[in-house]
């Protein structure tokens, strides 16, 4: 498998975690989103792979090109059921997917690079953009805090799909200076993930395209 990825992309980060949790090997194909005069994701070569011009894209062992991190993770869950990311209980599965959706649908799109760039084009300065981002991250995390369990990972002793979405979102929260002081359950999950080999392997600091310090 090949994963078209960008080290700091939270969507790519989610898929890297899922692949690592399932013990699946892949080749990272870095796509630099910040190349001057248009990132590599906007070039014809990449648009032929992913018409949306975003990361991640997964090229499967069968040659299929899959886009959008929720769809890719669901594919991996169905194709490689070992180390399941979803509970056997249907109601719990719905809760797990709800947390993933809050992050993937309601928080992340409001602070990704395209949103930030548009806000700046409309005349908002850096402080205003950070205020915007902080508002939406806090609103989403406040809901997640109430939905996840009181021990272990988000929904149990083993990490699952909710954790694959939450941990990258916390990386973004740190980047945008959003405090986690009001979220003790979320902080607990973050502390567990920080010691887990799959989350360590997938972290932006450990990617082939991570800039040298």
Helix and strand arrangement:
Blueprint: E1 2-5, H1 10-21, E2 27-30, H2 44-47, E3 57-59, E4 65-67, H3 69-79, H4 90-107, H5 113-121, H6 126-147, H7 161-175, H8 184-193, H9 197-202
Parallel strand pairs: 1-2
Antiparallel strand pairs: 1-3, 3-4
- Please write the string of helix (H) and strand (E) elements: EHEHEEHHHHHHH
Whole-number count of domains? 2
Q: Helix- and strand-based class? A: alpha+beta
How many H/I helical runs?
9
Can you give the mean pLDDT?
94
Poorly predicted parts: none
Strand residue percentage: 5-15%
Question: Which sheet architecture does the biggest sheet show?
Answer: 4 strands, mixed
Helix content: 40-55%
Strand numbers in spatial order across the main sheet? 2-1-3-4
Oligomeric composition of the shown chains: single chain
Spatial shape:
globular
Cα radius of gyration in angstroms? 17 Å
CATH class wording of the largest domain: Mainly Alpha
Strand element count: 4
Question: Kindly, what is the distance between the CA atoms of the first and last residues, rounded to a whole number of angstroms?
Answer: 29 Å
- Could you tell me the CATH topology label of the largest domain: Glutathione S-transferase Yfyf (Class Pi), Chain A, domain 2
Corresponding CATH architecture of the largest domain: Up-down Bundle
Protein name: Maleylacetoacetate isomerase
InterPro entries: Glutathione-S-Trfase_C-like, Glutathione-S-Trfase_C_sf, Glutathione_S-Trfase, Glutathione_S-Trfase_N, GST_Zeta, GST_Zeta_C, GST_Zeta_N, Thioredoxin-like_sf
EC number: 5.2.1.2
Family: Belongs to the GST superfamily. Zeta family.
């Amino acid at each position: 498998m090949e994963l078209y990825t960008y080290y700091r992309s939270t969507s790519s980060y989610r898929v890297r975690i899922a692949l690592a949790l399932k013990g699946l090997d892949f080749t990272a194909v870095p796509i630099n989103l910040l190349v001057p005069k248009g990132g590599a994701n906007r070039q014809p070569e990449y648009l032929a792979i992913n018409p949306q011009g975003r990361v991640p894209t997964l090229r499967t062992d069968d040659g299929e090109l899959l886009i959008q991190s929720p769809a890719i993770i669901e594919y991996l869950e169905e194709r490689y059921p070992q180390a399941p990311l979803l509970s056997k209980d249907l109601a719990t599965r719905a809760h797990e997917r709800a947390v993933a959706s809050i992050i993937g649908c309601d928080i992340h799109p409001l602070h990704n690079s395209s949103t930030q760039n548009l806000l700046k084009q409309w005349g908002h300065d850096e402080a205003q953009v950070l205020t915007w981002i902080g508002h939406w991250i806090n609103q989403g995390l406040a809901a997640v805090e109430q939905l996840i369990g009181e021990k272990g990972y988000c929904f149990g002793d083993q990490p699952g799909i909710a954790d694959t979405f939450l941990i990258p979102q916390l990386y973004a929260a740190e980047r945008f200076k959003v405090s986690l002081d009001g979220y003790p359950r979320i902080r607990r999950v973050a502390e567990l993930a920080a010691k887990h080999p799959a989350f360590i392997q997938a972290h932006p600091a450990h990617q082939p395209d991570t800039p040298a310090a």
